[in-house]
Design brief:
The protein is an alpha+beta fold. Helix content is about 55%, strand content about 15%. The radius of gyration is 20 Å and the shape is globular.
Length: about 300
């Protein structure tokens, strides 16, 4: 099985010497996975991120996805989330090997993602139905990080390492205040996917939509809407017929849909979006060689959302 060069470059760029060592071990890990789960017809997935993913046939499970990670910690969190969701609006989790940092999952077939729907409003309504029914309560909240953990780590690092400018630091201060208000209005913390965007929502043979690749994070239920709205803003803004006024109107429509689905006010949904966008911008600054134009776009989007909130 050939490991793509772009994937190797990405791993080394991000993980350094640790990544180099893992890449040396990866062929042996894959051979052991093949033997452990009796895998055949293995095909490497396209557009790999930081996990090595391939499709295969398993003697016991049929069509599967094999996911191998450099860090077992994040994969373990994903595995725990998948186990608790137990196929509820999400792909099934079949098996996990902590020593190999490898996981075997149901393959959603044909697996067309949400962007396969040409109409943006149809994408929105499908996502809203799925996302509003996704969060679940669990008995042990300590199994997963919280949104508070995510914000705390990212914001502390940004302030200590001084990797962001004054504009984003000001937005971070506002996001912290807004996030505290969101939490005060809802004492219940539930298990969230944490990364429900267009490419993590796939359609199966029956026409149902299922999620893949959960991060696994605890938070208030309506925070689940933020990642999709953020990504949908990018999808819609890429259209040639969209100007700033139309984009604002479209944002208002999205916020209204999710406010109705979660039985929350529009300002709470918009606040969730703003917090997530500031957090995502901090994460973007942590990337190896972040692009200046993308950083500026992220900050501009945070300010655009904040202006929208002030006008509600």
């Amino acid at each position: 099985m050939e490991i793509p060069e772009y994937f190797k470059d990405k791993i080394v760029q991000y993980f350094g010497s640790k990544g180099e060592e893992w890449l040396k071990e990866l062929p042996d890990i894959l051979d052991r996975c093949r033997e452990k789960w009796s895998l055949t017809d293995i095909v490497v997935a396209e557009d790999l991120s930081f996990n090595f993913v391939c499709f295969a046939q398993a003697a016991r499970y049929g069509e599967v996805v094999l996911k191998v990670a450099i860090s077992s910690a994040e994969l373990y969190t994903e595995m725990k989330a998948l186990s608790l969701y137990n196929g509820h609006n999400i792909c099934k989790h079949y098996d996990f090997d902590s020593k190999l940092a490898a996981m075997l999952l149901e393959r959603v077939v044909p697996g067309k993602n949400l962007t396969s729907l040409e109409d943006n409003k149809e994408q929105l309504m499908v996502a809203a139905d799925l996302i509003s029914n996704f969060p679940i309560g669990i008995d042990n909240n300590e199994l997963f990080p919280t949104y508070q953990d995510w914000l705390g780590r990212a914001f502390d690092r940004a302030r200590k390492e001084k990797i962001v400018g004054a504009k984003l630091l000001s937005l971070m201060d506002i996001a912290e205040e807004i996030f505290d208000d969101i939490n005060q209005q809802s004492a219940s913390q539930v298990l969230l996917h944490g990364d429900l965007h267009h490419w993590n929502i796939l359609q199966d043979r029956e026409g149902d939509w299922k999620a893949i690749d959960p991060k696994g994070v605890m938070g208030v239920a309506c925070m689940e809407s933020a990642r999709f709205i953020d990504n949908h803003l990018n999808v819609v803004s890429a259209r040639e017929d969209i100007d700033s006024l139309n984009l604002c109107n479209y944002l208002d429509e999205m916020v209204s849909v999710f406010a109705s689905k979660f039985d929350k006010s529009k300002i709470i949904i918009a606040n969730c979006l703003f917090v997530l966008c500031v957090l995502s911008t901090c994460w973007r600054f942590e990337e190896a060689n972040p692009k200046e134009d993308q950083l500026k776009e992220s900050i501009d989007k945070c300010e655009f959302i904040l202006k929208y909130i002030k006008n509600l």
